[in-house]
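Work Package 4 report. The design task specified in the project plan requires that, given a folded chain encoded as structure tokens, an amino acid be chosen for each position. We show below one input record used in the internal validation round.
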């Protein structure tokens, strides 16, 4: 059974549907992605033995991490932030304006919003609270775990017609960022510090 927030999320996504089936298809893909990221985040929180309160906040951040994607594709017909807006920042703005966090305490709201804002950034920035950092990493990892099959599908069929991501630019920029991050980690901490593929962070998911 869907929670109240999940029902509201579905209704919000569907509010952007039109008679353009290609647009609707892309919105449905992002909605389905959101719920898979919710499930991945739930599993990661359990595997990492998050306290129940932190697990609950991680799932909230997961549900809202791509809240702006529906507006983005409706307005720009693109999920490319460079052609539209930073969807992490905009999703946090929408979470506030749509009062999706009103039932949380102010510190909880701040940490969830921080996780939403940074989920698509190249790296988790310094200065987050300990809890916000844990939430952000959980959502970022869950996000990438879900997007990896799509990247693999692209590699198998580079000419596919999905508009889910700006394909060639995404792959080039993600590979560059991941290799640079891995090189820095290896130089600083040795091979064991190298990031996994699931933690490599692009700005489009």
């Amino acid at each position: 059974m869907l929670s109240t927030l999940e029902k509201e999320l579905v209704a919000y996504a569907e509010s952007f549907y039109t008679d353009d089936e290609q647009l609707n298809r892309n919105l449905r893909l992002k909605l389905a992605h959101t719920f898979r990221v919710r499930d991945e985040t739930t599993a990661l929180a359990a595997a990492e033995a998050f306290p129940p309160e932190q697990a609950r906040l991680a799932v909230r951040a997961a549900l809202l991490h791509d809240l702006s994607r529906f507006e983005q594709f409706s307005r720009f017909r693109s999920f490319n932030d460079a052609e539209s807006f930073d969807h992490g920042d905009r999703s946090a703005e929408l979470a506030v304006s749509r009062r999706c966090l009103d039932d949380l305490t102010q510190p909880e709201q701040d940490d969830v919003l921080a996780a939403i804002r940074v989920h698509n950034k190249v790296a988790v920035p310094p200065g987050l609270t300990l809890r916000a950092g844990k939430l952000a990493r959980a959502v970022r990892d869950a996000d990438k775990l879900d997007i990896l099959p799509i990247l693999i599908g692209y590699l198998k069929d580079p000419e596919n017609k999905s508009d889910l991501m700006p394909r060639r630019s995404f792959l080039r920029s993600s590979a560059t960022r991941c290799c640079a991050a891995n090189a820095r980690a290896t130089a600083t901490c040795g091979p064991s510090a190298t990031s996994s593929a699931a933690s490599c962070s692009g700005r489009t998911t």
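Helices lie at 4-14, 21-47, 52-64, 69-76, 87-97, 106-118, 130-156, 167-189. Validation will be extended to a larger panel in the next phase.
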